[in-house]
């Protein structure tokens, strides 16, 4: 029985892998392969010859900071006008993974996802007073009937008006935690640094409605916890600092900042962790921690999240009320919470990358694995087939990686040249069919970007290693 | 051995279900439950008392057609201004499922997903001549520097300009099949019918670049096949008709239409399937099929997809070229392809629903299963706990349904009232703890919307039935 099982175990993977290849090929309609080939990806063909794609020459393509340079050169974004970018396929893949991660954390705090229009009627903004207050940061337009709109940079007015339409809202339905992941628009006076400060960008914005101030503060702290979990999952060093409430308003506010020299925000941190604030929040004289007296350390940060306790600032304007347990109409206590989705992508690249090589939080890398087969005409050429089988076997054995592997089929180039490109693009794992692919059994060279390790592994070893890769 | 196995089999589900409940509860941070409760969903509290939510009273909330009425009443959409809607949580769930299905079919034909800005510079549209040609359908605006933009209703100009920046494009990289799923904007003179004709909507648009006319026609037919697979997967009856190319241009065009009385397009169909066209394409005298001579049947349709063979109309304007095998620069042959994502949602509801009950293509129903526990204080009340266990066990045994089940905890209402609501919202499966929940073993009443069947099943029977549900 034991022997039979072992024999079957030996057989099954090979059989099922072959069947899987066929099934996949048929489904993809790609002939015999169905593999993702680097030569077919819509990205600059050759990263060595920088500038050849011509994108750096476009307005917004000049390299004002590391992430902008690397993302334009690596074919992640392409300038489409001042402060506007095309998100190219690899960037969309990273973004969708990030959104998946954010969705999970928002659901975990009871978030319900909706989607509000970008066209935001002027009357909502006039009611809150922000039609004038926001000044030239609002993109404004009129429709064919002369009715005024702005393109929503944020949606406090819209969501409060929406909740106010539910005139029979009961305290039992609260808290309401509504969020969306949509494009936002802000007519920045000086868009710059690529996706770090652009005019059209993706944001996750949540709006919460509670029955009491106490409940609203509980919600506030729950959402802040969720934000921390997002940055922890990404492996990004961040600080949560006290912040100004700005044009959004409210009484309490925090920013989530990634410390970085390029950051536009100036922060002070207590070295023992008792206090952290945006300098907007402290007087120039304050140089020590208000709690422990330690000297405050100045640093710069990239703002990637912002939370506001709003109270009834908007609910009172739009009359967003609910029936209390005593059946009295009361104003909902609100909070709002933003995560800069595209800004997180760029900020992560900014803080993790080296001067000329992109590094991703591994959870959201556009592709997890790059396979580099031998150069055409080399001694190891027959290793190409083994590598293709390994690619297919991995997709079969580790289904969550099935769409997450690319095969660098530019076999007219040396392995070294392609490895250099792979290094620049920051695949967490690169698998090379080097000299030892001719060993029996064949041995593959596996580069792990995050640990800096190089391993020599058999087919089974590669699959075992990669079966541990987490995907969102 | 056999006996041992059987005993273990009996034990394991109970144990693993309990452990799973704990794990899930911890993960969700929702106390002991972590279940999706109907009373907590952001939707009208009571569907019986129509109009109470106040949404129908807003502009755009009046019921001009079935899908609009049902989607507003059911809390799927809420008017946000003329031709603009908030997509509420259930609609977003359906939309994300639909997008998942479309993504899969686009990837299957080699589609690479990108995302282009909504702010589309006027100079692109002036270059193609459409800045004037599109007239008042374009939403136009100027930024703080006085630079003109429109909000993209479609992206032929933008994508062709983008591909043209890759000045060293090789024939080896072709075909390029780029697509996005983004909001589009069109200043309709008469927005109406809810999501069927709105001013801000989601569209999937694909743009293809091929090395020759022959290759481009192959791409055209591949993408049409993919569109057919989308509608087939949704179980929607559709026709593919010859269509006018309109302002997009090109030489060949087809529309994908769902036959419906409310449809704004007039079609003629050959009863034997030899010919189908939008009436725009035929002369008034033509009343018989050009192929077989059968009399043409007039019908109306809702346009849900549109394909265009463009040739070099746009590539010649923006100089989107590639190097041929002979190393000569040639213009790319283009096609463009649209699927109305939010329109498909509404059109599906329009054609599948009854007068007062929503019916979804089961693949994209917002939730697959609704659990209705007994009324509080009824004889069957103790069945509530059994139902909660069934909910949890299903999530454990059929993980793809874990986030797809809701528990109607409004136990102050009779089962009958809640079943009526569930029927109106169109859950594919409704599971009721009726009288027979007190049997030993307990028996649940399972309503299958799509087959109209009512089944009486044990816990194991329910799980077996639902393990066959397909999710995208």
Compute the number of structural domains of chain A. Answer: 2
- Identify the CATH class of the largest domain in chain A: Alpha Beta
Q: Please give the count of helices of chain A.
A: 12
Helix content of chain A: 25-40%
Fourth-level CATH superfamily of the largest domain in chain A = Bira Bifunctional Protein, Domain 2
Q: How far apart are the termini of chain A?
A: 39 Å
| Integer average pLDDT of chain A | 90
CATH architecture call of the largest domain in chain A: 2-Layer Sandwich
What is the CATH T-level topology of the largest domain in chain A?
Answer: BirA Bifunctional Protein, domain 2
* Gyration radius of chain A, in Å: 26 Å
What is the number of strand segments of chain A?
A: 21
Shape call of chain A = elongated
**Largest interface between protein chains, with number of residues from each side:** A-B, 71 and 71 residues
How would you describe the oligomerization state of the chains in this entry? homodimer
InterPro entries (chains A, B): aa-tRNA-synt_IIb, aa-tRNA-synth_II, aa-tRNA-synth_II/BPL/LPL, Anticodon-bd, Anticodon-bd_dom_sf, Pro-tRNA-ligase_IIa, Pro-tRNA_synthetase, ProRS_core_prok
Domain Aminoacyl-transfer RNA synthetases class-II family profile (chains A, B): 96-361
Organism (chains A, B): Apteryx mantelli
Catalytic activity (chains A, B): tRNA(Pro) + L-proline + ATP = L-prolyl-tRNA(Pro) + AMP + diphosphate
Describe the structure.
The structure is a homodimer of 472-residue chains. In chain A, strands 3, 7, 8, 9, 10, 11, 12, 13 and 16 form a 9-stranded mixed β-sheet that branches. Chain A has a 5-stranded mixed β-sheet with strand order 18-17-19-20-21, with helices on both faces. In chain A, strands 4-6-5 form a 3-stranded antiparallel β-sheet. Chain A has 472 residues and is an alpha+beta fold. The model of chain A is unreliable at 1-18, 20-32 and 48-53 (pLDDT under 50). In chain A, 32% of the residues lie in helices and 24% in strands. The first copy, chain A, has 12 helices and 21 strands. In chain A, helix 3 (89-108) runs antiparallel to helix 7 (213-234) and helix 10 (383-397) packs parallel to helix 12 (459-466). Chain A folds into 2 domains: 15-36 and 367-466, Rossmann fold (3-Layer(aba) Sandwich); 91-351, Bira Bifunctional Protein, Domain 2 (BirA Bifunctional Protein, domain 2), CATH 3.30.930. The interface between A and B is large, with 71 and 71 residues. Chains A, B: InterPro entries: aa-tRNA-synt_IIb (IPR002314), aa-tRNA-synth_II (IPR006195), aa-tRNA-synth_II/BPL/LPL (IPR045864), Anticodon-bd (IPR004154), Anticodon-bd_dom_sf (IPR036621), Pro-tRNA-ligase_IIa (IPR002316), Pro-tRNA_synthetase (IPR050062), ProRS_core_prok (IPR033730).
